[in-house]
Amino acid sequence: MKITPVEITNKDFKRTMRGYSTDEVDEFLDEIVEDFEALYRENASLKDRIESFNEKLEHYASLEKTLQSTLVLAQNTADATKNQAEKEAEHILENAHAKAQGIIENSNKENERIKREYEKYRMEFMNFKMRVLNFMESQMSSFTSSSDEIERGTLGTSSLQVAGLHQVSDLKTAEPDEEETIKLEDYLDDDLEIKG
User: Fold this and answer.
1) Which CB contacts under 8 angstroms, 24+ apart, belong to 119-122?
2) Per-position DSSP letters for 42-93, written without gaps between them
3) CA separation for the pair 165, 157 (Å, rounded)
4) Contact 4, 40 (CB under 8 A)
């Protein structure tokens, strides 16, 4: 049972013949009451402070749990984000390598195609050049031969001899008729057109 300062103040004792001095007892009780009241007030104040501290402690404990949960969540989120970023970076690098490889392969193929096409056109040009040179040599040879025949006055005689005919000078002495002359002129014209 807790004793309060009021109970100590209001406490009555039985009187006996040989009892203690009432004044001394009352004076001592007054001192006890004062000290007890001070202790009681201090105790109440301490209880209030302890209760306040307990409330704050609970608040800080709750805040600590929240912070720990937040930190754990933040750490997990950071780890997940890091892992995701690493995977995405790896995926991007793989795609970049694949695209680069594809570009290199396509470039090599295109390079080979261009080389083949260049070689093809080079060979066609060389063939064309040879044909032109052969044609020009043939024309020069024909021109030189015709020029020599003109200078000697024997133009067309090689063709006539192949055909079994005589030189123009021999034909003039035989005085061919008009029809034969026309045929000979036609033949010479045809021969010149062929050589030209």
Assistant:
1) none
2) HHHHHHHHHHHHHHHHHHHHHHHHHHHHHHHHHHHHHHHHHHHHHHHHHHHH
3) 8
4) yes
Residue range 118-130, pLDDT digits in tens: 999 999 999 999 9
CA distances from 15 to 20, 137, 152, 186 (A): 9, 168, 190, 187
- Residue 165 CA to residue 187 CA, distance in Å, equals 11
Q: Considering the chain, what percentage of its residues have pLDDT values greater than 70? A: 72
Mapped onto helix, strand or coil, the DSSP state of residue 106 is helix
In whole angstroms, what is the distance from residue 119 CA to residue 122 CA?
Answer: 5
Which range marks the domain in which residue 23 is found?
Answer: 5-82
Q: Is residue 114, in this structure, part of any structural domain at all?
A: no
Our measurement of the distance from residue 62's CA atom to the centroid of its chain's CA atoms, rounded to an integer in Å, reads 49
What's the residue count for the chain? 196
How does pLDDT run across 136-166, given as a tens digit for each residue? 998 888 888 887 778 777 765 555 454 454 4
CB atoms within 10 A of CB 156: 21
For residue 190, being part of any structural domain is answered with yes
Whether the pTM exceeds 0.85: the reply is no
The answer to whether residue 96 sits within a structural domain is no
- The domain boundary, picked from 23, 56, 82, lies at 82
